[in-house]
Design brief:
By secondary structure, this protein is of the alpha/beta class. It folds into two domains: about 240 residues, 3-Layer(aba) Sandwich (Rossmann fold), CATH 3.40.50; about 170 residues, Four-carbon acid sugar kinase, nucleotide binding domain (Molybdenum Cofactor Biosythetic Enzyme, Chain A, 3-Layer(aba) Sandwich), CATH 3.40.980.20. The chain contains 15 helices and 18 strands. A hairpin with a 7-residue loop joins β17 and β18. It catalyses: 3-dehydro-D-erythronate + ATP = 3-dehydro-4-O-phospho-D-erythronate + ADP + H(+); 3-dehydro-L-erythronate + ATP = 3-dehydro-4-O-phospho-L-erythronate + ADP + H(+). It holds the Pfam family SBD_N. It is an enzyme of class 2 (transferase).
């Protein structure tokens, strides 16, 4: 297997979002969970997205895991590696975007790294270095209340400068609109002046195509699925990939019971849960009880077993920002988040044990905990449920045939759960 593109994603939903974008733009792509074992049988692909769960861990550990993934991807032939971060730049002043970017740049020997979380299809645009989520700047968007990494500054040059060892420059939209060569010469100027990374504006897909073309001159880039789109289209345009070969790898039905687990507290997910109440039985966990013991999970499983034979079910820990804040005050942010993620993983394991073969998970960290517990080594990418969310078919899993959807908290329309089930027969 010789790769044209290697990708390291800092969470599992982000990885499937990227794998989806690469597939839709002509690259045969597989998503692996961590660095694949040597005996994992992977199809012949153009791109591998190695999923890490490194967004919210200590920066040093994120750097170590990302470096190991980079080494594996390079050893399989990847000449360019994209570090996939969240389109809402989820991070704190300690990292992990800056420290991982710095380490990958050093290992690759690049002078300067292009950085953009823009993903216009989902409303993420960058102008003058400021990230917009739909119509509002990042710091006014629901991300200001994220349970793990509240985002209070929309200026990414400033945000990244607080995390990185290098100076952070800006390539503004006017330069991007002037074309690849103008971007290249601006980058040369920044690099000569000691800038090791530059946030680059993008508002439309055509901006990302220009950025992708320039990024391919380098060995590393940092961005979300929009940059994936630019890189994929650049690779196809240059003839390095035959887009006709990229058919969907994961179509046949699996049957079996269906369940949804929601651990995201994003506004989008809260709305999707409210809509799902009209379509399937929904159990709201008591988050306080989840944090203090195992009984709430047992109660949920007893409830699930009563309903599973009759159709899909949804179990949610999600609650409003005020309730999240109260719980975190009582138990601490990390402890509360971790306990709920582990409860979701317990539930996923028990649900699969009870015959669930179609599983939808809402929330990035939540999905990471679930997929780790199920021990799934990788995924093939199937139909697109919503922008950034494909159907995934597990490969090499002990449970046999199984399809999943791993939804970023913020993604999907109000009927997401019903929409997903329709595409997961
Ligand atoms: N009711 C709740 N109170 C506090 N934290 C919660 C609650 N429900 C879930 N969480 C935690 O909030 C975090 C949500 O993050 P994540 O799953 O990545 O969702 P998103 O995709 O929206 O970022 C997880 O750590 C999860 O365990
Ligand atoms: O880029 C994005 O927005 C997503 O791919 C992503 O990474 C979302 O993260 P979570 O909301 O934590 O799932």
């Amino acid at each position: 297997m010789t790769l044209v593109l290697g990708c390291i994603a800092d969470d599992y939903t982000g990885a499937s979002d990227l794998a989806n974008t690469l597939t839709r733009n002509g690259l045969r792509t597989v998503q692996t969970i961590g660095i694949p074992a040597d005996d994992l049988k992977l199809p012949d692909v153009d791109a591998v997205v190695v999923s890490l769960k490194s967004r919210s861990i200590a920066a040093g550990a994120a750097v170590e895991k990302s470096r190991a993934a980079d080494k594996w991807l390079r050893s399989r032939g990847a000449s360019h590696v994209l570090f996939k971060i969240c389109s809402t730049f989820d991070s704190t002043d300690k990292g992990n975007i800056g420290p991982v970017m710095d380490a990958l740049r050093t290992d690759a020997g690049d002078n300067i790294v292009l950085v953009t979380p823009a993903f216009p299809e989902t409303g993420r645009t960058v102008y003058q270095g400021n990230l917009f989520v739909g119509t509002v700047p990042l710091n006014e968007s629901p991300l200001k209340d994220h349970p793990l990494n509240p985002m209070h500054d929309s200026n990414l040059v400033r945000v990244l400068a607080r995390q990185s060892e290098t100076n952070i420059g800006l390539v503004d939209l006017g330069i991007v609109a002037s074309g690849a060569d103008v971007v290249r010469s601006h980058l040369d100027g920044l690099s000569e002046n000691g800038f090791g990374a530059a946030v680059i504006d993008a508002v439309f897909a055509k901006d990302l195509e220009t950025i992708g073309t320039v990024a391919l001159d380098h060995r590393v880039s940092v961005g979300a699925s929009g940059l994936g789109l630019g890189l994929a289209r650049g690779l196809v345009a240059s003839g390095r990939v035959n887009a006709d070969a990229a058919t969907s790898l994961a179509e046949k039905p699996v049957g079996g019971a269906a369940a949804c687990l929601a651990g995201s507290c994003s506004q989008a997910t809260l709305q999707q849960i409210a809509k799902a109440e009209h379509a399937m039985p929904v159990l709201h966990l008591d988050p306080e009880k989840v944090v203090v013991g195992k009984e709430e999970v047992q109660r949920a499983m007893a409830w699930a077993k009563e309903h599973l034979g009759k159709g899909p079910i949804l179990i949610a820990s999600s609650s409003t920002t005020d309730q999240v804040t109260q719980l975190q005050k009582r138990h601490g942010r990390d402890a509360a988040g971790h306990a709920i993620e582990q409860a979701m993983a317990d539930l996923a394991e028990a649900l699969v044990g009870a015959g669930v073969r179609r599983l939808i998970v809402a929330g990035g960290e939540t999905s990471g905990a679930v997929v780790d517990r199920l021990g799934i080594p990788g995924f093939l990418v199937g139909a697109e449920i919503a922008a950034g969310v494909p159907v995934l078919r597990a490969v090499g899993a002990g449970q046999g045939d199984m399809v999943l959807a791993l939804k970023s908290g913020n993604f999907g329309g109000p009927d997401f759960f019903a929409d997903a089930l329709k595409l997961m027969p």
